[in-house]
Design a protein that fits this description.
By secondary structure, the chain is α+β, with helices and mostly antiparallel strands. Helices cover about 35% and strands about 20% of the residues. The chain folds into two domains: about 5-110, HU Protein, Chain A; about 135-200, Orthogonal Bundle (Arc Repressor Mutant, subunit A).
């Protein structure tokens, strides 16, 4: 188990007279890539099992070093460091180590990695729905009737794109359509392979 040194810093406050304080990791020592290689060196001919072993070893190494307040440099990738958090304080003397928690693992990529990604990257507009289109119950039933006149059933993904809904909204609406003694849709199959068939209420306007 490692020990992380921390210090506090203040941030400007919008309220006059208040000066909140926060914690951060102090005196970070970086473990350079050569040291990482020496600790992970297992074999000269990596197999799939070797790669898995190296990745697992790297995970444990990161946990050990980051829990000691160090940062770890992987050449060609970037720097890993630990981020900590604690309640804000109005007086540094109120800060207590027991109130500090690990918030996340921060990653700062090397400039070369970002440049390589930028060179290989192009952009296009996503076809995925990020905001659900508002549809009335009547419109939903009409779209379902048209679809199920051609197909025997509809999957959750097909429903999502047919209705132009986000994933969460599509699943919520599907659950609603399957409720009641005379549902609009009837769910068939298992949890991961379910499809929906027309229910007795689908033809009702």
């Amino acid at each position: 188990m490692g020990t992380i040194n921390y210090s506090w810093y203040d941030t400007p406050s919008l309220k006059e007279g208040q000066k909140p304080y926060h914690v951060r990791v102090s005196n970070v020592i970086t473990m350079e890539f050569e040291e990482v290689c020496k600790e992970l060196e297992k074999t000269s001919i990596p197999t799939e099992a070797d790669i898995r072993a190296v990745v697992e070893g790297l995970s444990h190494l990161l946990a050990r070093r980051l829990s000691s307040g160090m940062s770890v440099h992987l050449e060609g990738l970037g720097y890993f460091s630990v981020g900590i958090t604690a309640p804000t304080f109005n007086d540094p003397s109120e800060i207590n180590a027991r109130q500090i928690k690990v918030r996340t693992v921060d990653f700062r990529p090397e400039k070369k990695l970002i440049e390589e990604i930028a060179q290989e990257t192009s952009f296009q507009k996503s076809t995925a729905c990020e905001r659900s289109v508002t549809l009335t119950d009547k419109s939903v039933r009409r779209l379902l009737r048209d679809f199920l006149e051609i197909h025997d059933c509809i999957s959750a993904m097909e429903f999502r794109f047919l209705m132009n809904q986000t994933r969460a909204t599509a699943y919520r609406r599907l659950r609603e359509l399957c409720k009641g003694p005379r549902p609009v849709l009837i769910k068939m199959g298992g949890a991961r392979s379910s499809v929906y068939k027309a229910g007795p209420q689908l033809s009702v306007e």
